[in-house]
Amino acid sequence: ALLLELLPRVDFLFGNEREALTWAGTEGWDTTDPAFVATRLSLIPGVKARKRTVVITRGSLPTVVAVNGHVSFHDVEPIAHDRLVDSTGAGDCYLGGFMAALSRDL
């Protein structure tokens, strides 16, 4: 309930595929499509002029980005399994890179 209360004030919403699909289930959205979830979340009315950006990471699959109902997919550079030590914090690193690029208008 708190997220629904705060969502109109959120400019950027990040989550992974599991989180997105869990949210969809709690809202009664009959879907397993993260692009659908991102679209719906991006269209929830906000109190600001800025349109909400929803980013859903999907591991090695392309990241889903939705802005005002428009969806795009962004490839992720895969890492060989033998080079992967621990994925803890991978989403936090992704978010940090995204926000750094955003701050530089990239």
Number of strands: 4
What is the number of helical segments per DSSP (H or I, 4+ residues)?
Answer: 4
Name the strands of the widest sheet in spatial order: 1-2-3-4
Strand content: 15-25%
Cα radius of gyration in angstroms: 14 Å
Mean pLDDT comes to 92
Helix/strand order, N-terminal first: HEHHEEEH
Structural class: alpha+beta
Question: Portion of residues in helices?
Answer: 25-40%
Record the SSE blueprint.
Elements: H1 2-6, E1 12-16, H2 17-26, H3 34-43, E2 53-58, E3 61-67, E4 70-74, H4 90-103
Parallel strand pairs: 1-2
Antiparallel strand pairs: 2-3, 3-4
Explain this structure to me?
The chain has 106 residues and is an alpha+beta fold. 37% of the residues lie in helices and 22% in strands. It has 4 helices and 4 strands. It has a 4-stranded mixed β-sheet with strand order 1-2-3-4. It is globular and about 45 Å long. The N and C termini lie far apart (34 Å).
